[in-house]
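Subject: Sanity check before I submit

Could someone independently write out the structure tokens for this chain? I want to compare against mine line by line before I put it in a report. The sequence has 260 residues.
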Amino acid sequence: MSSTSNPLVLLLRKLEAHSTLDEDDRRAILALPSTLKALDAQAYLVREGDAPGACAVVASGFACRHKQTADGARQIVALHIPGDPLDLQGLFLDVADHSVQMLTRAELAMIPRTILQGLIRARPGVGRAFLVLTLVEDSILREWVLNIGRRGAAARLAPFRCARGGRLEAQGLAGGDGYELPMTQEQLGDALGLTPVHVNRTLRVLESLGFVERQRRRVRIADWRRMRDYGDFNPRYLHLGRTRAGVSPSAPVESAFRAR
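---
Independent answer below. Compare away.
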């Protein structure tokens, strides 16, 4: 079964990047009832204060989660790629404390919240996989806070680019020719705590150093090793090495990073 015939294949791939599932668990995930929902770029799936009714998985396109101040200033706190559940907190919390918005036109697989809750309760392996995925999201958020709070502009953008490329590769969505970065400079600024002018200047710095090449919104990291060192990037926080109960893998690093 391909991801085009069942978008939950991408969800399964995401879960299995971090956890081991048996065949019954895998079948149960792929058999979850879902309906496809299309949203245009900039459309909201969830607004802060909403009550969740379904768990959305990105089937195609890209989305973000963000918070807003009282005067409307936005801070993007997470980016989501195909295969990502858009808001795992909404599975068991009854009110959204942030908003979920599309960066591009996207298709979402909408799984009824109560059915996914029931599967998690009924199958411990599935429950553990979703718990691990939630913990990985927390790990990414911690790195996000460090990035915004303690790194300079260029060093802030470098690990952001590295992490995005690594996550896309882990999902089989990026290759040697690079990956799509479907974000405006304003959106990048909202993710990194920079103004659009500062983002543009910083992108030019990374290009002048030979770290990245850009063609429209397609990005290729020309020198992973130097980019990684410059941005103080360590992929450990992405936890891309599979974890198993009773096993503590040392330095779980996705092979794409090791090879470069």
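---
OP: Matches mine. For the report I'm noting this point. Strands lie at 35-39, 44-46, 54-60, 63-68, 74-80, 99-102, 106-112, 179-180, 212-215, 218-221.
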